[in-house]
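Continuing the batch. This is chain 6 of the set; chains 1 through 5 are on the previous pages. Same settings as before, nothing changed between runs. Recording input and output for traceability.
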Amino acid sequence: MGRKVTEEDMNFLLQSLNNEVISLLKNCEITLGLEELKKQTQSTTWIVASGGNQEELRFLFSDKKINHLFDGGIFGSPKSKHEIIENHILNNSFLPALFLGDSLYDIETAMKYNLDFIFVSDWTDLENWELICKQYNVQSIRTVSDLVIV
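Output for chain 6:
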């Protein structure tokens, strides 16, 4: 019979996983075209609505020196994307809004709130994303740089 897993063991494992995720994210590349797109959309407000931990997101965006692009704020868990959209987009009248996402949940969320949506395929790990985009009649791009006007 194995050893019983304690709360201390679980906390250690969760912290180890968290440290690994932060390390991986700190070393990942910033999506191409982000700075250029912001320059072309200076009159718009950019907001991050993520399922990731809000404090970690804010730290990572600051570390990558891209936090200034998201002048409407960087938001994540413990709030859901629905709460973020309701509290920071709808209540602040940031409409019309364009939602860029990479998951079925993102598509469904955009539809629920009647937001324009573009699926970003380079960001996703969703299998059959092309079929899903067709099924939901959603436009897709490979990367954010596809939105930049040259």
